């Protein structure tokens, strides 16, 4: 009885694979790549050159620039606590 159940399970799982035509199993999902014409290659080279030149025009960022620096107030640092020779604080 277990063999019959196992055979039925295998038949159910293999059914969709056996029912599909062979051509559908070997479908090409990647289209053929088209080669570019010399004019297209030249246009790409011009665009790449213009892109690199535009990147050179961007100024370098200055280190330490804080745009919110004039908005924030400096918190006062607490005064150092004076200690006596025994280690207790003097008031």
Describe the protein.
The chain is an all-alpha fold. It is 45% helix and 0% strand.
Shape: flat
> How many strands in all?
0
Overall pLDDT level = 77
Radius of gyration: 38 Å
Regions with pLDDT < 50 over 5+ consecutive residues?
Answer: none
Sheet with the most strands?
none
Cα end-to-end separation: 94 Å
**Structural class by helix and strand composition:** mainly alpha
Count of helical stretches: 3
Helix proportion of residues, in percent?
40-55%
Q: What oligomeric state is this?
A: single chain
Fold topology:
Blueprint: H1 2-19, H2 22-25, H3 38-56
Brief summary:
By secondary structure, the chain is mostly helical. The chain contains 3 helices and no strands. The radius of gyration is 38 Å and the shape is flat.
Annotation keywords:
single chain, about 90 residues, mainly alpha, about 45% helix, 3 helices
């Amino acid at each position: 009885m277990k063999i019959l159940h196992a055979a039925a399970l295998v038949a159910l799982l293999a059914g969709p694979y056996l029912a599909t035509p062979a051509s559908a199993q070997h479908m090409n999902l990647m289209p053929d790549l088209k080669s570019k014409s010399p004019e297209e290659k030249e246009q790409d080279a011009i665009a790449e050159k213009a892109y690199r030149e535009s990147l050179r025009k961007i100024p370098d960022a200055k280190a330490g620039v804080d745009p919110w620096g004039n908005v924030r107030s400096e918190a006062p640092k607490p005064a150092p606590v004076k200690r006596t020779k025994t280690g207790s604080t003097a008031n």
